[in-house]
Design goal:
Elements: E1 5-10, E2 15-22, E3 26-34, H1 36-39, H2 47-69, E4 78-84, H3 88-105, E5 109-113, H4 114-128, E6 138-143, E7 148-156, E8 159-167, H5 173-183, H6 190-198, H7 235-247, H8 251-262, H9 269-274, H10 278-305, E9 310-314, H11 321-333, E10 337-339, H12 343-346, H13 351-363
Parallel strand pairs: 1-4, 4-5, 6-9, 9-10
Antiparallel strand pairs: 1-2, 2-3, 6-7, 7-8
The protein binds 5'-O-[(R)-(carboxyoxy)(hydroxy)phosphoryl]adenosine (KG4) and zinc ion (ZN).
């Protein structure tokens, strides 16, 4: 089979991205335009601004991906685009652009689930390293600003199949990092800043109680799952941090930090660090420890329950240094092989979309021009 070049396009949240991947296993180019500066003043993604920025960035980003790869539109075999889940207005920018290109160039169009993309970010990089021997089924933890999902993933004759074995009941893990950072006036996005600050605090200073999951009640319409679900919940820890701020009278220091950071055009972790006292750093480190312990504890429990040997962790929060170290250490203790994407492929990108599209290209699973965004698209 000759090489296949797929141009991937991703616009589900606050990154406009385009990439070219060869035969699902080699990144040829990977262009990402991040909108962080646009959303920073609001401490979170503003959907209308995201759509506007995608409109501005989509043409230059796609051109850059082609230029970096030294290819033109005609030398692409297929187009792949994120169909969902994500912000509807943001998704539509990528989808409309990909559909127009597919129509104008008369090339096949492939619709990709964003979560499937995050899983394939790891598979792509492993294949790039020459590792084709992952043991099925894989347990995959997709942990980002919008998702905290556990899937069993397997390649069968019919293509990749995914079975959800756990998800968050409320906030996603990345959302909890972002909301706690906003509450403590540490900046946006919260995950990387908390990751940087936590190294300077004592993670055992404050004990946060483990999250309490309320299981389905009898009489619920949904049937009880045959095997246990490993669900997550992160709204409680966010409230616990807020309670801590109130009972320890941290608000005046937070307001001083908010005012000082507002004076800096692009604050870095070191700037934030200089504005944090020991107590705040302990709080941040303890929060991160509680998040990581919960994520890793539930994921390893799911691996034991389903008899899994291989774990993939992906999504923006997979960039977290403590999560990486803890997963690797505790995974090794339990004989589990653990794989993470590199940091650039952990957060949103289009190489993962082009990689996830390749098996669909081989299977001839193409989308029609009626393709539209699906904000809550499930992964199956
Ligand atoms: O996958 P992603 O780029 O977008 C979504 O699909 O949500 O993930 C973004 C999320 C944000 O919540 C961000 O705070 C978090 O990933 N994140 C991190 C780190 N880097 C990014 N969370 C913890 N530690 C990090 N180093
Ligand atoms: Zn994502």
């Amino acid at each position: 089979m000759s090489d296949t070049y797929i141009l991937g396009i991703e616009s589900s949240c606050d990154e406009t991205a385009a990439a070219i991947v060869r035969s699902g296993e080699q990144i040829i180019s990977n262009a990402v335009f991040s909108q962080i500066a646009t959303h920073q003043p609001y401490g979170g993604v503003v959907p209308e601004l995201a759509s506007r920025e995608h409109l501005r960035a989509i043409v230059p980003v796609v051109r850059r991906a082609l230029a970096d790869a030294g290819r033109d539109y005609h030398s692409i075999d297929a187009l792949a685009v994120t169909r969902g889940p994500g912000l509807a207005g943001a998704l539509l920018v990528g989808i409309s652009f990909a559909k127009s290109l597919a129509y104008a160039l008369d090339k096949p169009l492939i619709a990709v689930n964003h979560l499937e993309g995050h899983i394939h970010a790891v598979l792509l990089e492993e294949r790039q390293k020459g590792n084709y021997d992952l043991q099925f089924p894989l347990l995959t933890l997709v942990v980002s600003g919008g998702h905290t999902h556990l899937y069993l993933a397997e390649l069968k004759d019919s293509g990749w199949t995914y079975q959800n074995v756990g998800h968050t009941r409320d906030d996603a893990a990345g959302e909890a990092f972002d909301k706690v950072a906003k509450l403590l006036a540490l900046g946006y996005p919260g995950g990387p800043i908390i990751d940087g600050l936590a190294k300077h605090g004592r993670a055992d200073a404050i004990k946060f109680p483990p999250s309490q999951i309320k299981h389905r009640q009898r009489g619920d319409k949904s049937p009880e799952p045959e095997r246990p679900h490993f669900d997550f919940s992160y709204s409680g820890i966010k409230t616990a941090v807020l309670r801590y701020v109130e009972t320890h009278d941290l608000q005046p220091a937070i307001e001083r930090r908010r005012a000082a950071l507002a004076e800096l055009p692009h604050p870095r972790v070191d700037d934030v660090l200089a504005l944090c006292d020991r107590g705040t750093l302990d709080l941040v480190a303890s929060f991160q420890r509680a998040m990581v312990d919960d994520l890793v504890g539930k994921t390893l429990a799911a691996a034991r329950e389903y008899g899994i040997n291989t774990l993939l962790v992906s999504g923006g929060v997979a960039a977290n240094s403590e999560l990486r170290l803890t997963c690797e250490r505790r995974g090794a203790e339990e004989g589990l092989a653990v794989y993470f994407p590199s940091r650039p492929l952990s957060t949103d990108n289009a190489a993962m979309i082009a990689a996830a599209a390749y098996p669909k290209f081989l299977a001839g699973e193409f989308a029609g021009l009626e393709l539209s965004a699906e904000a809550s698209l499930p992964l199956r």
